[in-house]
């Protein structure tokens, strides 16, 4: 398929900011705009929300809280879509370059190196590229797709970078090997040996990709305990609409992010196994009452009590740890003072006899 050039103007600051963001995601601006264009063409819509709704008089946290989990979900899905589009573009480019090289191989050029090139492009690399396409598509379909957001996406970026390196090498081979074959006037075919070695190296690089993909599938998202607890609270609160419950949950989230990772392991274990489950249950009951149109007051009060219990557990555990640390430090200082006095280092203390 032919390619066309598109020119348009944006302000310089926006361009710099976008280039930086693209570099951090491992993308070029061309790839990013291509992903956007394909998404629009495929779905017949802008692939993100555009709104000009004014802010209401409600507090910002209370206003945004019901949609927080849904917003996070949309952002995760958009990020995964970007990665899917990038893998599809890379795989498509790799297969196109392999096909172009294979089709351009003339029957008139013989020799060991050229036969090896034919075997690599026509079978070995072609099969490995097809396997990469199948593996990449399998990530975003079936049961695996639902758990991708819980994986370590940095490993998926590593996989994409491996494909990107293969794509760049094949593009260079396409630009150099095909002209070399067209201009060959006969004679020594050993001039094609460097191309054979480069293609053989690409075959080895393909072999390094499946272990990376397996490592990604066995990984978990790199989140601290506090971030994991925050994610559970947000997910449970997503369908809830009662404003004062949402405000209480905002305060709980702030406390979790501030203090949770400093709690004793036993306290964290109880929080995650018991207290958070209770909170998730009462929030689900409140959401059900809101949906069914029954009076949610009792359920909301129960939610507030549960939030207060969780807040108290975190606060009391933190205070107990601080108190233990303070007392431990005071005891250590007293011991050091006694030792210093015994040695005669402190004025007024007992001195060793002369």
Written overview of the protein:
There is one protein chain. Helix content is 74%, strand content 0%. The protein has 354 residues and is mostly helical. It is elongated and about 90 Å long. The model is unreliable at 52-66 and 345-354 (pLDDT under 50).
Concise synopsis of the structure shown:
The protein is mainly alpha-helical and 354 residues long.
Measured distance between first and last alpha carbons: 100 Å
Count of β-strands: 0
Main sheet specs: none
Structural class: mainly alpha
Q: Give the oligomeric state.
A: single chain
Using only C-alpha atoms, the radius of gyration works out to 31 Å
Q: What would you call the shape?
A: elongated
In the predicted model, the low-confidence regions spanning at least 5 consecutive residues are 52-66, 345-354
Helix content: over 70%
Number of helices: 11
Mean pLDDT: 77
Please provide the ordered H/E string of secondary-structure elements.
HHHHHHHHHHH
Bin the strand percentage: under 5%
